[in-house]
Each structure stands twice: as C-alpha cells, then as structure tokens.
Specification:
By secondary structure, this protein is mainly alpha-helical. Helix content is about 65%, strand content about 0%. This is Amino acid transporter. GO terms for molecular function: transmembrane transporter activity.
Length: about 525
C-alpha cells in the first residue's frame, strides 16, 4: 500500500457541485484543481480523530453482534460454519473496507456510494447515481432496524429468563423496538456535541467487555474437543438437508456482524481532516472488528458447553453464561452491559443515516427532497431526515406482528442491501483501474494489490448476496418466510419508478472535480 504525500487542512478537500440538468458527470480528464469543498451550509466540523475511529467500530460491534445471533449459524452449518465463516467474513469485510477506504481518500463525501457511482460509471452516470442512492439510503434505513431488533430480542429474553411465566407476544417486540429508539433519537437532536466523549466511552466499553466475556468463558466454561469446533457441520435441523446450502446460510451471522464499515463516511462533513481520518477509521473498523469477532467466535465454540437446552431459545448466550457460572445475577449483568453497546450503535446509526438521507435529498434524489434537505438553523441538524429514519424503523418494527421470525428477516435485509450498495462503486473503480485513466488518488492508495483486493471484494459480495434472501428453514410458511428479498426488491422498483417518472429530470448530478 502507498501513502501519497498530501498536505491537508480541515476544510480544503474536493469541489462538489450539483450540475444543471443534463450536465455530464465525471472526473476531469486532467484532474486539474478547481477549488475547495467546505462543509455544507448548516453543518460544522467538530468530530476528532478518536471519535471518528470509534464511530465505525461501535456501529459494527462485530463480536457483540455475533454473540447475540450465533444461534442461526448453529442450526445452519454448526460450529464449523461459525469458525470458518468468521475467517471468510473477516477477509471479505476487510477487502470491502480497504476498497471503500481508497475511494474515501479520493473523494470523502457524505453521499459516498451514490456519488462515487455517479462519477465513476462508464455510462449513464445520472441513472447509476440515482439508483445507487436509493439502494444505499434504503440499505442504511434498514440497518437502523438492526440494533432495535437485537435490543428487543435481548429485553424479551431477559424477561423470560427472570420470569418463566412471561410469554412474549409479537406486538410486545414491536413496541419494545419503538421504545428503545427514543433515547438515541433524543440524543441525536439535543446532545450532538457530546459525540466525541460518547464515542470514547463506547470504545472503552467495546474493548473492556470483550476482555471480560473472553475471560469468563475461558475460566468457567468446559473445554470442548477440537473436532467439535473444526469438524462439526450441522445441516439436518433446518430442513435443507444439504451441507453446502446450510453452510452458506450459516454465514449470515458472521457477514451481518462485520457489515457497515462505510458508516463513518456519511459523517464526512462533520469530521476534521476528513481525507486521512475517514479512510483510517474504515480500515480500523473492518480489521479490528474482524479480528475480535474471530477470537470471540473461537473462544465461544471451545468453552460454551452443551447447548441442548439453550439452542432453541431467543438468546442462547444468556443461558450459556448461566450454565457455566451457575449465577443468574452474573448472566443478567453481562447481558445487560452487552445491551448498552447496542444503544451506542443505535445512536451512531441514527446520526450517520440522517446525514445520508439529507445529502441525497439535497441532490433531489428523493420525493419531497426540499423537505428532507432542511437543516435546522439552531440545532444544525437535518431534523426532517432524522424523523424519516425513525418513521421507517417504526414501520419495519411492525413486521414482528406478522411474523415471529422477522428478526432473522431484518438482519438478512440489512446485510443484503448494504452488500449490494458496495458492489457498484467497487466495480466502477476497478474498471477505471483496468481501462484507465484512474482518478487521482488521495493520501491512501492500495497500489499493486488494489486490483486483486477489488476483485476479491466483488466475488465475496456476489457469494454472500446469493444466500441472503433464502429462508432459514424448510418448509417455507408465512411465519418463517425471509422477506429480505421482497423488501429490497420493492426499493429497487421504487428507484426505477422515481427515475422514469421524475428523477431523470430533477436529480442533480453530483459532479466531482479532484485536486
């Protein structure tokens, strides 16, 4: 990898201009400098280095996410799927992360994927920009439902654990999801300037809890035979009766846990020294989380003990800690601290996605764009965009009323949509590298390994996306149906409909001129 000599200031980066109708997008052939990009009107740069690094790390919360979703992989694939899947997912996430970091170094922008696609597409840049914008915005709006669904699952599991007579209804879960959004939503409105301290606290908790969980498992848990970890493949439980299919479906928990390294990109206009700090954050986010997830997965498999009575529960990890420690108090405390991490992640996701919705609306990429592009003059926040995100998560939470397996559908939806959002900008930058001329690189450049990393990232994306819409078990019913593909398909149809009805005339093509 190479780091180019580049002198950076807080505000001087890249020119961004919304073109007039019909203006062709693309990189200036000469790469000539044409000015500077400052934070958009109403926003200000206040996020420091430590905060921007912790921001992405906490949103992924990879080892924590695996801890509360590994039951899906145990039923489809088993221990071998978790162990080897965590390796594959880690390398895949790093390949994607490094590719995005290189793009972020070239053009650090809130719009990220859709602006890169618009400026690097070999043809029809306006179409690709709008389509990519809908996919990316949809992906991150779906991702906002991840932490609330996990928290709702944890809360109901704790309620059952401490009160055997409690029987959760589907609508209970929906209400809990809506309720847990209130605190991070309010924090985004009125405590934005506390983000630096907030991220530092979350980062310390993220690492501290990891050490505690690993130590507790090793000290109190019975050690499993290596054959159980490395060779046990389970495929009969789900009804698929095929080892390859079960292993592929079991990969979902691992890919879900390391997806979302681009989150910090959507805060670009509020990050100091954005050209170097955002790429660093993306690289650290994917590498640190991938390593921590692999270590936790390995320790968990070796020391979690028998799961005969816990595998079919909502949260097997709760019963694992109760089983190895023999203490209800210890199990409650450990799981409660784990839940705090997801509150931090939810705060960060609301902040990131509201900026993404706002900037896409500013480019007339959405219906009622003028409304969602509004920035409150006092709060200096895209308040209407934030309200839209909260409304979408509220609607998604209602899926639980229709299906008690909606939790799996929501995490499938998030992973599916985010991976698709990464595919096109990585493909377009790869085509520019192969066909030429490549865009002028920023401070971070992968150099000779860039093309192989991009190719591996694309192959990994295609592989995991194939499995995301599959139902986890057979036979398929209305209760175990995976609605991820259907909902994502609706977003694509919405994008195409908007393009033909109005978007091709009103979408402001984001033209980038590089220094």
């Amino acid at each position: 990898m190479e780091t180019n000599n580049y002198k950076e200031t807080n505000d001087l980066d890249v020119v961004e201009r919304g073109s007039s109708q019909g203006e062709k997008a693309g990189v200036s052939p000469s790469g000539a400098p044409s000015g500077e990009r400052r934070p958009a009107a109403g926003l200000e740069r206040y996020i420091n280095l430590a905060a921007v690094v912790n921001f992405g790390v906490i949103i992924l919360a990879s080892w924590e996410s695996l801890a509360v979703t590994f039951q899906f992989a145990l039923n489809n694939g088993g221990p071998a799927s978790i162990f080897y899947g965590s390796i594959l997912a880690g390398f895949g996430a790093c390949a994607i992360g490094f590719s995005l970091a290189e793009l972020a170094s070239i053009d650090p922008t809130v719009g990220a994927q859709y602006r890169w696609s618009a400026n690097l597409a070999p043809a029809a840049p306006r179409f690709w920009g709008l389509l990519q914008g809908w996919v990316t915005v949809g992906a991150w709006c779906f991702a906002c439902s991840g932490p609330p669904s996990i928290l709702a699952n944890m809360i109901t599991s704790l309620a059952i654990f401490n009160n055997e007579n409690y029987v959760p209804e589907r609508w209970h879960t929906s209400l809990i999801m809506i309720a847990v959004m209130i605190v991070p939503f309010c924090f985004n409105l009125w405590f934005r300037k506390l983000l630096d301290a907030f991220e530092m606290t979350g980062g310390i908790l993220h690492i501290g809890l990891f050490i505690v969980f690993v130590v507790v498992l090793i000290v109190f848990g019975p050690r499993s035979d290596p054959d159980f970890v490395f060779k046990t493949l389970i495929w009969e439980n789900s009804g698929w009766n095929n080892k390859g299919v079960s292993w592929g479906l079991g990969l979902l928990s691992m890919t879900f846990s390391v997806t979302g390294a681009d989150s910090v990109l959507h805060m670009c206009d509020e990050v100091k020294k954005v050209r170097t700090r955002v790429p660093r954050s993306i690289i650290l986010t994917c590498t640190v989380n991938s390593v921590m997830m692999f270590v936790f997965a390995t320790v968990l498999l070796f020391y979690m003990g028998p799961l005969d009575n816990a595998i079919d529960t909502r949260l097997p990890l709760l019963w694992v800690f109760h089983g190895i420690t023999g203490s209800k108090i210890a199990a409650n405390v450990l799981i409660s601290f784990l839940a705090v991490i997801f509150f931090f992640a939810l705060f960060n996701i609301f902040a990131s996605v509201s900026r993404l919705v706002w900037v896409f609306a500013r480019d007339n990429g959405l219906p009622f764009s003028s409304f969602f592009a509004y920035v409150h003059p006092t709060l200096k926040l895209p308040v209407n965009a934030l309200l839209l995100v909260g409304s979408i998560v509220t609607c998604l939470s209602l899926i639980y009323i229709a299906s008690d397996t909606a939790f799996n559908a929501l995490i499938s939806l998030q992973a599916l949509a985010l991976h698709v959002s990464y595919f096109f900008p990585i493909l377009f930058i790869l085509l520019r590298k192969v066909r030429g001329p490549p865009p002028p690189y920023g401070p971070f450049k992968m150099g000779a390994i860039g093309v192989p990393v991009n190719v591996f990232a694309l192959c990994y994306i295609v592989y995991v996306v194939v499995w995301m819409p599959f139902p986890q078990s057979l036979p398929v019913t209305k209760d175990n149906m995976n609605y991820a593909g259907v909902i994502f398909g609706a977003v694509v149809l919405g994008a195409l409909g908007h393009w033909f009805i109005r978007g091709r005339k009103t979408f402001k093509m984001p033209v980038i001129r590089y220094e």
